[in-house]
Amino acid sequence: MSSANQNYRRDADALGQFGQFGGRFVAETLMPLILELEQAYNDARSEPNFIAELDRFNAEFVGRPSPLYFAERLTEQYGGAKIFFKREELNHTGAHKINNCIGQVLLARRMGKTRIIAETGAGMHGVATATVCARFGLECVVYMGATDIERQRDNVARMRLMGAKIIPVTSGKGTLKDAMNEALRDWVTNVDNTFYMIGTVAGPHPYPTLVRDFQSIIGRETHSQMLEREGRLPDSLVACIGGGSNAMGLFHHFLDYPEVQMIGVEAAGHGLDSGKHAASLKGGVPGVLHGNRTYLLQDEDGQIDDAHSVSAGLDYPGIGPEHAWLHEEGRVEYVAVTDQQALDAFHNCCRMEGIIPALETAHALAEVARRAPTLPSDHLMVVCLSGRGDKDMPTVLRLMEEQA
Amino acid sequence: MSNRLQQRFADCAEQNRAALVTYICAGDPGYDASLSLLQNLPGAGADIIELGMPFSDPMADGPTIQAAAVRALDAGQTQRKTLEMVRAFRAKDQTTPLVLMGYYNPIHRYGAEAFLNDAHAAGVDGLLIVDLPAEHDNELGPMARDLGLDMIRMASPTTDAKRLPRVLANASGFLYYVSLNGVTGVGQADNAVVDAALSDIRKQSDLPICVGFGVRTPAQAAAFARTATGVVVGSALVEAMFNGGEAAALELTRGLAGAMQR
User: Fold this and answer.
1) Which alpha helices (DSSP H) does A195-313 contain, by range?
2) What's the rounded Cα separation, in Å, for the pair A310 and A152?
3) What is the pLDDT of residues B189-245, one digit of tens each?
4) Which CATH number does the domain housing residue B212 bear?
5) Global ipTM
6) Which of A226, A229, A339, B241 has the most other CB atoms within 10 Å of its CB?
7) Which residue in the list A82, A86, A97, A391 is annotated as catalytic?
8) Is the Cβ pair A189, B181 closer than 8 Å?
9) B185: domain range?
10) Starting at the edge strand that comes first in sequence, how are the strands of the sheet with A165-169 ordered?
11) Which residue among A24, A285, A290 places its CB closest to the CB of B133?
12) Which pathway is this protein engaged in (chain A) (predicted)?
């Protein structure tokens, strides 16, 4: 377990691993490509021109810094911890996903790549990818599960509007993992001109690291904003986890402040005992998929199980390898909330704060609802408002009708 | 190198022909049909068997082998049943080399050490794990070599001369040359490009080289057989089995075997 002075803010080791998790488990054809990407990223990450360009796009195109907002009515309602929202849903394209896409598109340009591919679940990463491709005039192909296309029609329309080609994926259950398989098949076929823009802190090294780095601006801003407002560090951080990019973005900067508690919230779907959930840490075991070793939902034979969540963005049978490591180290606490708990928190946030959160984000809010009432009024809690819920209107309206 | 692989490549060299390597997916379309095909492949001219271990997420495979894996898993195939098939095959055939091909997770779940022991005991000669590149040799390599199992590596058009030594280190059995950038069963390689790649690899290695991906017909196989040590046919065979059953698969195998002579 953890010791207070351990260094948790670190890069992956020579094998691309955090502890036993992560790695470069890809076919030989892709191996030279991810090594080239790693080299390009290592060159770029410390280069002043690259950093300056990233800063400029974050400020002028994404709209950063995103506000740290005191959720006063929610705080009153729960009568405990002082609750703050880190407003990532106010970013251009309505979620934290754009932070990563801006970083990766600048990297792709440096590498001379002209064609961008991506996988998407809820469509938020797809929209962010289509957005940066439009901005830089790059060809964009997005793989999306047929099931997800059905439940996220608005995002599909947005991507098409910006010139992206959407390829429906019908293999498997037609969700995020299947889209990722197809994107990898595309990449292995189009190795020369194509850059694979992975949307979360998963996949082969260096993706978990570079996505984390591009997202970690969330935590850095939170730190200075909280200092300015309250004069000290937050006591706890709460974020939802599918692959885990918004959570890693919020947590990473704070990992070596032992006084800051961190809670990652997985999707328990119909319940952890139901067999229909997406909680890889709570209900999975370590394995290897999509280039990395991590906790996976799988059967006794090592076949990957389908995940289930009301939110398409959490509907993935794995989790980023750095989360798997932080889980085993005990540095971050991981919990799971059900579809119903998330929906209740969704409605409550709409009514109490006038903010329609994404269903993914609502999982984090459900954990806040559980935890905040038990904490003292001087406890500072930050929840990552990772995305806006406009895309979820059809799902929510359908569920409201069913439950009426 | 396993005795069986070594012996088979030597026999083929003596007969001035390339080795025919046939891929089938274990348990497709069901255990019994798949075992019967497996047992009859050598008689139809297959020199080396690549037995696919079905996986739910075969990222490097095209639609044909994806569908085969789905059929096998739906019919109840597991890692244990695949090893059972190997035992049944070995009971009647002690000379044809058999290599397991697939993805790492089912082995990881089984337990690496237990799986290698069981595979060796069943009569497996080597392993070709698509998503276990040279960089992760430590996962299975040392244990496999202790048992005398070959870890078969892949090289591809993206593997340049600078990277090749890394791929060749600790490789044994044969080198699987992926003829084109892409997934199995889709596209067709340029023979001249592949020939050049093989001669580059041979400057660095004495390993037998089997060429696969996109080889469908006896004519295509014959073109590769001129320069490769072996030729791998997978999707076309899986397709023949699916469309025409064992008789069609064996007919294709005989046709391919006839194309191996140099």
Assistant:
1) 207-215, 217-230, 245-251, 280-283
2) 12
3) 899 999 999 999 999 999 999 999 989 999 999 999 999 999 999 999 999 999 999
4) 3.20.20.70
5) 0.97
6) A339
7) A97
8) yes
9) 4-258
10) A165-169, A139-145, A115-120, A194-196
11) A24
12) Amino-acid biosynthesis; L-tryptophan biosynthesis; L-tryptophan from chorismate: step 5/5
Give the three-class secondary structure for B128: strand
Give the tokens for residue A39: 């080299």
Residue B139 contacts residue B100 (beta carbons within 8 Å): no
- How is the beta sheet containing A261-269 ordered, strand by strand? A68-70, A82-86, A380-384, A236-240, A261-269, A333-338
Question: Cα–Cα distance between B18 and B21 in angstroms, integer?
Answer: 9
For residue B15, the distance in angstroms to the closest alpha carbon of chain A comes to 32
From the candidates A169, A177, A180, A288, which should be mutated to test the interface with B, based on the most B CB atoms within 10 A?
A288
Q: Is beta strand B153-155 parallel, antiparallel or unpaired with respect to B175-178? A: parallel
Closest Cα in chain A, distance from residue B63 (Å): 9
Structure tokens at B100: 């397991």
How far apart CA A95 and CA A387 sit, in angstroms, is: 4
Number of domains in chain B: 1
Q: How far apart are CA A229 and CA A154, in angstroms?
A: 37
Question: Would the CB atoms of A291 and B153 count as touching at under 8 Å?
Answer: no
Backbone CA torsion sign across B245, B248, B252, B257 = positive
Chain B residues with CB under 8 Å of a chain A CB are 55-60, 62, 66, 73, 78-80, 103-110, 130-136, 153-160, 163, 167, 178, 181-183, 186-187
Distance CA A344, CA A297 (A): 26
Q: Per-residue confidence of chain A (404 residues) as pLDDT tens digits?
A: 444 557 999 999 999 999 999 999 999 999 999 999 999 999 999 999 999 999 999 999 999 999 999 999 999 999 999 999 999 999 999 999 999 999 999 999 999 999 999 999 889 999 999 999 999 999 999 999 998 898 788 999 999 999 999 999 998 778 889 999 999 999 999 999 999 999 999 999 999 999 999 999 999 999 999 999 999 999 999 999 999 999 999 999 999 999 999 999 999 999 999 989 999 999 999 999 999 999 999 999 999 998 989 988 888 899 999 999 999 999 999 999 999 999 999 999 999 999 999 999 999 999 999 999 999 999 999 999 999 999 899 889 999 898 87
Amino acid symbol at B153: R
Of A229, A259, A245, A150, give the one whose Cα is nearest residue A197: A245
All residues of chain A having their beta carbon less than 8 Å from the beta carbon of residue B80 are 301
> Which residue type does A280 have?
S
**Domains of chain A, CATH where assigned:** 17-59+97-206 (3.40.50.1100), 65-94+216-403 (3.40.50.1100)
End-to-end Cα, chain A, rounded Å: 47
CA-based nearest residue to A210, from A334, A135, A121, A104: A104
pTM for this one?
0.96
- CA torsion through residues B101, B106, B108, B112, sign: negative
Beta carbons of A149 and A166 less than 8 angstroms apart: yes
